[in-house]
Sequence to fold (183 residues):
Amino acid sequence: MAMKKTIAVFIFIALSSALSGCGANKIASGIAPVENFDSDRYLGTWYEIARMDMFFERGLYNVTANYSLNDDGTIKVVNRGYKLSSEEWKSVTGKAKFVGDENTGHLKVSFFGPFYASYVVYELDAEYQYAFVTGGNKKILWLLARTPDVSDELVSRFTQEAKALGYDMNNMIFDVQREELPR
Fold:
């Protein structure tokens, strides 16, 4: 019975990804991945500052993504967040691979076996202190930073640029990092 449930979940995720345009090679319209991307500089911990409301992160706060290099050259991805309703930490580990050129900020990420989704870094400051990231469609969007707090100016610029690109900002969550919760 447990095996059937697991298979059903994988099929659901694969179909959802395919139907929503989240394929690993897709890039949302109007988006261009950053060039001169340096994966070594991107490695480490990033704090989720804002995100689209997505079922797989619903109810999570103080979310971080930690990127490190695997022995086989892929990138290990560990996403971690505090589930407020159960008062416990949740984490998931996956891997990322470049879709094409390793100097282009377009990767594919998998947390579920052979199923990959597009991960596109479309803005990244020169010091690798913040990143604007999307998926293969305009239903996925993150503002990531190296610290849990960023300037209001950066959030405003992120919001304005996302609106101009056609993202539905009514579906954004901006209070992801909360000081009163465990870190």
